[in-house]
Amino acid sequence: MKALFIGGIKSGKSKNAEEFTLMHAKTKPYYLATTEFIDAEIAQRIELHKKQREDRFITVEESLELSKTVSKCDDIVVIECISMWINNMLFHNKPHKEIYAEIETLLELENSIVFVLNDVGGGIIPDNKLAREFIDLSGIISQKIAAKCDKVFHTVAGISTKIK
């Protein structure tokens, strides 16, 4: 089973994805944290997420090699979040071909996975190349993930609505 929770920043998608994961877990589920420590504000966000999930998950931190990490998990995995992973891949100068290949490999795994992804395509076209590249990658990857997921939820104001 694969599911996607997509929505804006602070929409409640992570919390709802965690609850969904807990409902579908056979044992203690995995929480794959992708965020690299960038600055103090990101560190605060990470701490809030840790408090939110308490001790209900086995936390694994991996910022680049998602499929290799997920393949070692023996129960459902929530990946929080694909948007930060895309950011990491761009920061480490990974080519688009490698980014898409990693997503395809991840989607082919037999593991149950719950993806969390920011919906960043609802605004204007940014005036800088890197932001446009990030938005383009995010949009294409969200389509790839949604196409292979059994369930897709759009989250607004803490409410996740099933769209697939």
Automatic annotation (TrEMBL):
GO molecular function annotation: adenosylcobinamide kinase activity; ATP binding; cobinamide phosphate guanylyltransferase activity; GTP binding
InterPro entries to which the protein is assigned, alphabetical: CobU/CobP (IPR003203), P-loop_NTPase (IPR027417)
Record Pfam families: CobU (PF02283)
Keywords annotated in UniProt: ATP-binding, Cobalamin biosynthesis, GTP-binding, Kinase, Nucleotide-binding, Nucleotidyltransferase, Transferase
Record-linked SUPFAM superfamilies: P-loop containing nucleoside triphosphate hydrolases
Pathway(s) served: Cofactor biosynthesis; adenosylcobalamin biosynthesis; adenosylcobalamin from cob(II)yrinate a,c-diamide: step 5/7; Cofactor biosynthesis; adenosylcobalamin biosynthesis; adenosylcobalamin from cob(II)yrinate a,c-diamide: step 6/7
Catalytic residues of the enzyme: H49 (gmp-histidine intermediate)
Enzyme class: transferase
Enzyme nomenclature, EC number: 2.7.1.156, 2.7.7.62
Residues bound to GTP: G7, G8, I9, K10, S11, G12, K13, S14, K50, K51, Q52, R53, E61, E80
GO biological process entries: cobalamin biosynthetic process
Catalytic activity entry: adenosylcob(III)inamide + ATP = adenosylcob(III)inamide phosphate + ADP + H(+); adenosylcob(III)inamide + GTP = adenosylcob(III)inamide phosphate + GDP + H(+); adenosylcob(III)inamide phosphate + GTP + H(+) = adenosylcob(III)inamide-GDP + diphosphate
Gene3D superfamilies on file: P-loop containing nucleotide triphosphate hydrolases (3.40.50.300)
Family according to the record: Belongs to the CobU/CobP family.
Task of the protein: Catalyzes ATP-dependent phosphorylation of adenosylcobinamide and addition of GMP to adenosylcobinamide phosphate.
Name the record gives this protein: Adenosylcobinamide kinase
Species this chain originates from: Sulfurimonas lithotrophica
Phylogenetic placement of the source organism: Bacteria, Pseudomonadati, Campylobacterota, Epsilonproteobacteria, Campylobacterales
